[in-house]
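Deliverable D4.2, example record:
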Amino acid sequence: MNAQPSPGSSQTTDEQISAGASAWLAYWPALLIALAGLALSTALLWARQAEDAAGEQSRIHHDLSAIRTRLEAVAQATFSPTVGLEAMIQLDGGISTERFDALAGRVVKLLPQVRSIVAAPNDVARYVYSLKGNQAVINLDYRTIAVQYQQIQAARRQGRPLLVGPVKLVQGGQGIIQRTPVFLPSADGKQEAAYWGVISVVADLARFVEAAGLSDTPSLRIALYQVQADQQSLGTPIWGEATLAQRPDSVTQYVQMPGTVWALTAAPVAPADNGTAPALKHAPEFGASLVASAALALLAALLVYRRRLLQTQNLTLSKEVEQRRQSQQALEATQSRFRELTEMSADWVWEQDEHLCFTYISRLAEDQDTHDPLRMLGQQRWNAPNLVPGTDWDSHRLSLDKHEPFRDFEYAHLDDLGQRRHVSISGAPIFDAQGQFKGYRGTGRDMTDIRQAEAALRNSEQALTLARDRLQAVLDAALEFSIIATDMEGRVALFNRGAEQMLGYSEAEMLGRSPAIIHLQEEIAARGAELSRSSGRLIEGFEVFVARGREGGTETCIWTYVRKDGSHLTVSLTVSLLHDPSGKPTGFLGIARDITAQRQAENELVRLNAGLETRVEQRTAELSHALDTLKKAQHELLRAEKMAALGSLVAGIAHELNTPLGNCLTTASTLDDMTQQMRRNFEGGQMRRSVLDAYLNDATTACSILLRSMSTANELVTHFKQVSVDQTTAHRRKFGLSSVLDDVLSLLRPQLRKSTILVESQIKLSQELDSFPGPLGQVLSNLLMNAILHAFEPGRADARILITATLNADDQAELEEHGCGSFTLRVEDNGIGMTPEVRRRAFDPFFTTKMGQGGTGLGLNIVYNIVTGILGGRIELFSEPAQGSRFVITLPFTAPQFEAVAPTQTSVDTDAAADVDPAASS
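Output generated by the structure prediction step:
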């Protein structure tokens, strides 16, 4: 039977339950403290982790700034050769293989990360260093490679270097390439710079990273990225972990590379890698906080205070990091500007310590001096190798001992090739805050090109002086003629020795004065009235002498000269208009010859004829006496004709000498103007190599023209004095017919330019002549001048002269079989032709259709004597009225042996034969 509980036992159970509940409720403060301690411990753990993270971020920023600076320095050193090559190309307009290999070789030797350097004028690789392993790059046209040509075009559009990478290299591995466009400045500095080509520097990426120290960071993981065009987001990875930038604890800084911007990202090594878990690092502190739960409230307060203190410190540290970053960027920008200015400058920078020993020489010294600048470090300047004696080092050292600044101290030394190099240096002393002398700092400049230009200028001035002396000697040798040159206003600028002897005035008395003082005023007035009537305008003063010459270029008139002693003489004056190379009139040239004797002979002849007619009429009955008188008259007439021929001969001298002497004067004045301009450029500091080269070319051409013109004048004087070809001045050599014809046409160009005559040549000879080029040139010159003066009517538009040289079938066969033979030279025109009488007497001496108008009648006679004599050929003339004229000359390729004979004196030449330089005549 079961026992039933009593009411008293049920009440006891409820009390027990209530007591247990009350006991648990009594522990609520402990539970609250435990919960508070746990919360505070957790807050402490979080604060310490945040502190560690902030410190780690600050350390990463600091280390990353140092790595970025080192990376930019390595990049600047790796790709700096392009600056030197670009400056060298811009200075010289190009670069030689030797200079390219010398500079590139030093760079590759000093910088192992540089794989190769390529220079591509017009985007075609012409220069490569080193060639080993890169033979396929030579003559590579980048325009055929789309990717590389796009890079080159981008650099050219930007006008600055472009850095691309990573690039898979043919030799293996990854690399980076800098492409630098090169632009050549214009000569006058006003036009847009011309594109020369591109310079590429290829660097091995692994060695580049190793040189920058990116792989030697055990506490950091490093990665390089390209930067997108917006300069805000990262692009393709260049080196390192591709996902490193995605880590929350990573730090990124931007690197200014030569030609682009890279992103440098760093993150700490993962906790699993360093063996310390963040959760276990603060476990003792966390346990101590739990054990000391009794002091948890105070600890919580301290933790809150410490947390706020840590936040303040982190904020201050962040501000300091940002300030340091900004200061570092400003310093780097300043350094970059200094480096760029130093690299673009033609000078180099140097520093010396208090003992005047070199402590620093900029790398630009390598461009200015073939000596390695590192060899001078620790040495004094006057102990440099291969110094050239002659520098006053003692006074320079005395100035340095006094710690005085100096400028433009110049000395010379021999480079490694034995060439003399001139150097100009300037410097200033350096003192510390206490005023103690610490050394010198200054710049240097290579003065070699300037000194060489000065030497070339001195040589040019000497050549110009020699040319002037030669020209003056020619003018002084023409004693039989009065040669006076004036400017456009009529002031005398040249008064030769012949004019001094003829007029009695000295050159000093006449320079700057008008030539009107040597003329009769009544003649000037009469001539002015005549010209005024014919032209319909008033002509007076100096214009009387040059009016016709200004219009037609040359005029010959008869004038009466008034000598200084008041005596009179009759002259034939030829006035010519002078031009500069551009065709602008520069003055007038007057050549006069004394024809007093000729006029007296003509007057005597007139009087003799009048007396003869009177005596014949009066003494008809006295036949025998009249016959004697007639014979005497005939004798006098013959003598008078000889004197008239002599007058015409002398009249022709002025005409023939006018062209070569005018060429000499024009060329000499032009050369003088160019020299004065060159001096002004030099004194103004505007000397450039292209300007000096153009001046030397022009000076060489001017000297050549002077020599040719003076030689022509010399030959003309010789021909006219001896009335035949002076065969003793001929020189034999091998030459081409076309070259002789070109020389003749160049000397006759002023006459052809003033006329409307077209000269054509068709020389079909490949065989050289073994003959006398001087006489042959005289033949061509006389035939052309004869056609210019006599063959055409004034103003004819279709005037034409044709010169041909051909071989007929027989001559060709003889030339191929025996190596000798003859050819046919034709000079023909479409002019007015000749009458049978003129054609019959064309080769007679002193026969001319323009007697008294500048013709001497000797031109064709000299042609006939030269062709049939010294050249060993024959000449034929074919001409009909209104059908033109044709001279057919048959000449052998090898002229016959010619024996030189001494010139003979004629009855009209009382002086000894002129002593002519054969070389000048040839």
